[in-house]
Every structure is written in structure tokens, then in C-alpha cells.
Design a protein that fits this description.
Blueprint lengths: L4 H13 L16 E3 L11 E14 L2 E15 L5 H17 L3 E5 L16 E4 L5 E8 L4 E6 L12 E4 L5 E3 L5 E3 L5 E11 L9 E15 L7
Parallel strand pairs: 1-2
Antiparallel strand pairs: 2-3, 3-12, 4-7, 4-10, 5-6, 5-8, 6-7, 8-9, 11-12
């Protein structure tokens, strides 16, 4: 059986957390070691982050479940020679940014001339012919002719209303029907809201690492009695 909408959202966040690297502009490289539901991590893996799926609240209306799922993120890093409190604030800022910012772009293609993307296209470079914008393909839906990409830089906006788009060394191609839209880690989630967070504890003089936590509310919908569909 396919994954539930909730599981697909959690998996999308796990993929996004892997981009928590200094190369992407973050203070720490917690994305180099991403764990799910782990209670303990090895100090040799630092810096790391751990995603903990939490409980959710659900209300029903017009045949749909309106869900608010809690997700907790823990991040740990070596102190080094930096003030421990500064490192904690850097980790917290990184966590909030990577979980709540809209880092992805959604490209919508015209039906005419559309070539469906294939599984082998994931991870390859997407290029806009007129803008020259580039990004990495992270997901696609050939039924709705929508691709989700991670832009290579902030300037890669794919903002042309009509643009030929190809995948380097890949299969999918087409002409966009509108400027790209910013989206969260997945279009399955309506909103991601930072609700609480901060230092896990005040570091002691002998500590060599610090930790922070951040909690988020993820709002999404499913059909009543069917957690696999929206």
C-alpha cells in the first residue's frame, strides 16, 4: 500500500533536512547526518539533526480531515572555540529556516509538447532556456504536469511566464505555463509554522557540544476515513 499523506510529508522533511549544509548557506552542516526518531546519536557524527514525528490534532469538515501534526527537530554540534550560546542560536536559526522557508519552486507545464519526467530524472539539473535559471529536480507529477525543484541560488527564480525547460542528461521536458511558485518541502502541506524552540540546556564548562530543539506545526488535509488521499 502507498504511504499515507502524513508519511509522505515526514519523508519530504527528511529529504529537505539533508540540505542543511554550509554549502547551502547554513551555519552548520547538520544535514550530513540526519536521523529519524533516534534517541541517541554518536558524537562522532556531529553536527547532526534528528526529526521526531509527534502527535496531531484533527478536525472534520465537509468530508475532510484538517490535520495539525507536530514535528520536533533536535540539532547538535561541536562547540569548538565559539561561545556555546552563539552556537545554539546559530543552530536554532538554521532549524527554523530549513523547516519553514519556502525553498522549492513548482513548475507547471503546458500539455502541448510535454515530455513526462521519469524516476531517473530525480537529482538532475533542470534548466530554463530563456532565463538560464537552474535547479535540481526533487519531485514530479506527470498527471498534473508539475515539477518540484530546488533552485541552485536565490536568483534562480524560473520567473518567466512561458519558458522551455529541460533536464540535463534526463528525459523530462516542456514549456512552462506560468512563472514558478514557491512551495514548502511538499505541496501536500498547506503551512509549516514554528511554534517553540530554544537551547536544550545551558552548556556546562566541560561540555564539548551543544543542542537545541525546535517544534513545528504542519497543517495538511486528507479525505475523511482515507489518510492516503487529499
Amino acid at each position: 500500500m502507498a504511504d499515507t499523506i502524513r508519511e509522505q510529508i515526514i519523508s519530504a522533511f527528511m529529504t529537505r533536512l539533508a540540505d542543511w549544509t554550509t554549502a547551502r548557506g547554513f551555519n552548520h552542516g547538520c544535514g550530513n547526518a540526519v536521523f529519524r526518531g533516534a534517541r541517541y546519536v554518536d558524537a562522532s557524527d556531529l553536527p547532526v539533526c534528528v526529526l521526531h514525528p509527534q502527535s496531531e490534532e484533527v478536525t472534520q469538515q465537509y468530508g475532510r480531515n484538517h490535520c495539525e501534526m507536530m514535528i520536533k527537530i533536535e540539532a547538535l554540534a561541536d562547540i569548538g572555540t565559539t561561545n556555546p550560546s552563539v552556537v545554539q542560536e546559530q543552530l536554532l536559526g538554521d532549524a527554523v529556516t530549513i523547516m519553514t522557508a519556502a525553498p522549492y519552486l513548482c513548475l507547471v507545464f503546458r500539455a502541448a509538447g510535454y515530455t513526462p519526467a521519469v524516476a531517473g530524472d530525480i537529482g538532475k539539473t533542470v534548466t530554463g532556456a530563456s532565463t538560464g535559471d537552474t535547479g535540481t529536480l526533487v519531485g514530479y507529477d506527470n498527471t498534473t504536469r508539475q515539477w518540484t525543484i530546488l533552485p541552485d541560488a536565490a536568483a534562480d527564480a524560473f520567473d518567466a511566464a512561458s519558458e522551455a525547460v529541460t533536464i540535463s542528461g534526463g528525459t523530462g521536458a516542456g514549456t512552462t505555463d506560468q512563472a514558478a511558485e514557491q512551495v514548502h518541502v511538499t505541496r501536500l502541506a498547506d503551512a509549516v509554522v514554528y511554534t517553540s524552540g530554544g537551547p536544550a540546556e545551558t552548556p556546562r564548562e566541560e561540555d564539548t557540544m551543544v543542542a537545541v530543539f525546535a517544534e513545528f506545526t504542519v497543517r495538511y488535509n486528507t479525505l475523511s476515513g482515507n489518510p492516503y488521499s487529499q
